[in-house]
Amino acid sequence: MGRDDEFSRFFASRFDQARRTAHALCGDWLEAEEITQAAFVRMYAAWPKVRRESAEAYLRTIVTRLFLDSRRRGRGREQAVPSPPESAVPADTSSDERQPLLAALRHVPPRQRAVLVLRYVHDLSVEQVAESLRCSTGTVKSQTARGLETLREAYRGTVAPETA
Amino acid sequence: MWENEQELRGALRSEVDGPAPASRTDLADLLRRGRRRLLARRVAAAAGVLAVVGVVGFGTAALGELAAPDHSPPADGNSTAAPLLTTSPATVGPEWTTPGLPARAPYGTFTPGSTAPPPPGREVLVVPQCDPGAGSRFTTWLSPRPPAPLLDAWASAVRQVAAPAQVSGPHTRTIPANEDKHPDQVDGHTQWIDVTDGGGTGSVDLDLGRTTLAPPAAADDEAFAEGNCTPPRRLVRADGTVLQFYPVRASEPYQSLLQVLRIYTPRGDTYAVTVRNFGSPDFEFREQDASFDRTGAGRGTLPLTEEQLTRIGLAVADAA
Pick the residue with more confidence: B5 or B61? Predict the structure, then answer.
């Protein structure tokens, strides 16, 4: 089987899940699509070196790191005033009220959010998350605790019924 | 509210696996991008070797051709071929130096997103991308309105250096402060001037910020703030003002091209003069939420050369 054929099969079987992971991380379907595309493009370039049994984990790691990179770059260029080039025609593609937990997740800082998604959506161990994010297991544990706390507070705000 | 982590896991997965819009990704396009990236990595690797032996200089780097305006009159709307390369005597003279900062390793090259790719027929450029890190850690870009004499100097300089291209008057928009959310915020101001020649319309933008650092330290701190991989070029003037000139940057949407010259004054004022390959025809201002919608791809190249941008920057520095 040629490189493109093999990669195409991997793409067909994994793209949707990777896009959903990206969406859980960034909260926007358009951005999620672009993060996932970029991840697959990177995978294609590295495909001969990718071990097939770990390809899915590798893809997940790339998606997570691309998301974190985008947030780092965004913060670096953050300005209080928008300039004309800042955005293309925007579309409201964010999570809606039918997904209160994902909406609450967007209130969690990016790195803690990544830890929560890897641990609770993908069921990775602390050690696996640490390897994926290139940090210590202690960091993963502390980020998990802080992320959960923020998520709980945000979730309460998202679903709390209005009171008189 | 979930009672334990297992419940959270179930709830989260349920939402992640919930309804999703149809994917727009085309496998054939993705494979093409993958092959391009492979090629780009090989090109970047080769360029890196050349850079190590000192063959590639900032002023004559491959990206020089991006700052290649076509100043034929915009009479019939038909663009003509842009010159391939421009030299930049204003920024490669002996007074301009490169700070002794090591170049950064690119994490990749610019890749257009599928939602706003370059127009058909426009080549996707191989532009190395680097992480800007913390960006401007000691500079705030609250963008108060620049002093009138400075605005005049900026507009006058653009008119003079861009000739014979058509130059608009300054366009300005005010972005009201959101004091509820950010008590320290002030009304922001953004201003730009359109430059039109046979290649289309681009623009020159002016931003004002404040830094808490002395000019050389601020310039060092922001040496890679534009996502550049090679160090910027720098000019230190007798009064202590520092000018810092960055390589061309490509960004989304549509493969937007920008080149920035930052000016750090001893008083702490920081100016960013940015040449862009798009202008007023390519975006709209939305009054209801004081924001900009980008609607057009702009021209293929920047409307001014590095030398022209430098002369504008020097005029702004004189007036600052």
Answer: B5
Compare CB distances from A84 to B114, B136, B292 and report the shortest one's residue.
Answer: B292
Contact assignment for B132 to A76 by CB distance below 8 Å: yes
Contacts with B, A 16-35, CB within 8 Å: 16, 19-21, 23-24, 29-30, 33-34
CA atoms of A155 and A94, how far apart (whole Å): 16
Which of B30, B110, B139, B178 is best to mutate for the A interface (most A CBs within 10 A)? B30
Q: Mean pLDDT: which of B61-65, B71-75, B222-226 is highest? A: B222-226
Least confident range from A27-31, A113-117, B38-42, B203-207: namely B38-42
Closest CA to A40 of A8, A72, A88: A8
Query: Are A8 and B19 within 8 A, CB to CB?
Result: no
A–B interface: beta-carbon pairs under 8 A:
177
End-to-end C-alpha distance for chain A, whole angstroms: 66
Q: Tell me whether residues A82 and B190 touch, CB distance under 8 A.
A: yes
Instruction: Compute φ and ψ for B277, nearest 5 degrees.
Output: -90, 15
- Whether A81 has a pLDDT exceeding 60, the answer reads no
Distance CA B232, CA B219 (A): 9
- For residues B90 and A133, what is the distance between their CA atoms, to the nearest angstrom? 44
Is A80 in CB contact (< 8 Å) with chain B?
Answer: yes
Contact between A113 and B319 (Cβ < 8 Å): no
A48 touches chain B (CB under 8 A): no
**Cβ-count burial of B198 within 10 angstroms (0-12 exposed, 13-18 middle, 19+ buried)?**
buried
Tokens 């004091």: give the residue.
B179
Residue A139: the pLDDT is: 92
* The amino acid at B265: T
Which residues in B153-215 belong to E strands, given as ranges? 166-167, 171-175, 188-197, 200-211
pLDDT of A95 strictly over 90 = no
CA distance A19 to A74: 20
CA distance B249 to chain A (A): 13
Give pTM, 2 decimals.
Answer: 0.56
pLDDT computed for residue A113 by the predictor: 95
Query: Phi and psi at residue B167, in whole multiples of 5°?
Result: -125, 130
In this prediction, residues B77-88 reach a mean pLDDT of: 34
**Residue in A95, A130, A98, A90 with CA at minimum distance from that of residue A114:** A130
